[in-house]
């Protein structure tokens, strides 16, 4: 009977080959955009304390972020919304994500958590929205999620998004919308009445209904809520 060949025929792998390390995973390339140098320095120092994230540049304005992103090709841009004079963070986000591929992911990091700010940033193409009060671990996780294309939202921001989805917009009549548009321009009751060919008493009646539907008590409050809920053109 012939011998059965061994299944492990051939030279055995050397110990050096078996123990060779896996190729290193490349770090996430991150660009910081904030108009405060102290904030950027703090973020850079914080991010240096974790593995897998490399800060490749710092921008102090939206315009600078666009130029640096084009040159440095980061994976993620950590973007503030308020950038002083010039281009704001929402406009910079829109420009970044619509640029030549591969476009970076944009993760908003801001102090502002109003519905209007959140909506504008997400509609501009931001992958995530984080508040500056977050713990470092949450920031690190959000950057990694953003680099992978996953949505990253602070818990308070996620709560606001869900609450807004669950509560429909107040149903304003066309006349109430007309009056609200005039309020946003700072027009008084008498001028509104004259423009719309109605009496001042009718304007006041409509204002009372608008306040009730928006849950406010003042003209300024009505304009603020209407802007936040995108009820104005």
Automatic annotation (TrEMBL):
CDD domains: LuxR_C_like, REC_NarL-like. Residues 165-230 form the HTH luxR-type domain. GO terms for biological process: phosphorelay signal transduction system; regulation of DNA-templated transcription. Transmembrane segments: none annotated. InterPro entries: CheY-like_superfamily (IPR011006), NreC/VraR/RcsB-like_REC (IPR058245), Sig_transdc_resp-reg_C-effctor (IPR016032), Sig_transdc_resp-reg_receiver (IPR001789), Tscrpt_reg_LuxR_C (IPR000792), WalR-like (IPR039420). Residues 29-147 form the Response regulatory domain. The modification 4-aspartylphosphate is found at residue 80. The keyword DNA-binding applies. One of its GO terms (molecular function) is DNA binding. Keywords: DNA-binding, Phosphoprotein, Transcription, Transcription regulation. SUPFAM superfamilies: C-terminal effector domain of the bipartite response regulators, CheY-like. PANTHER family: TRANSCRIPTIONAL REGULATORY PROTEIN NARL-RELATED (PTHR43214:SF24), TWO-COMPONENT RESPONSE REGULATOR (PTHR43214). This is DNA-binding response regulator, NarL/FixJ family, contains REC and HTH domains. It comes from Streptomyces melanosporofaciens.
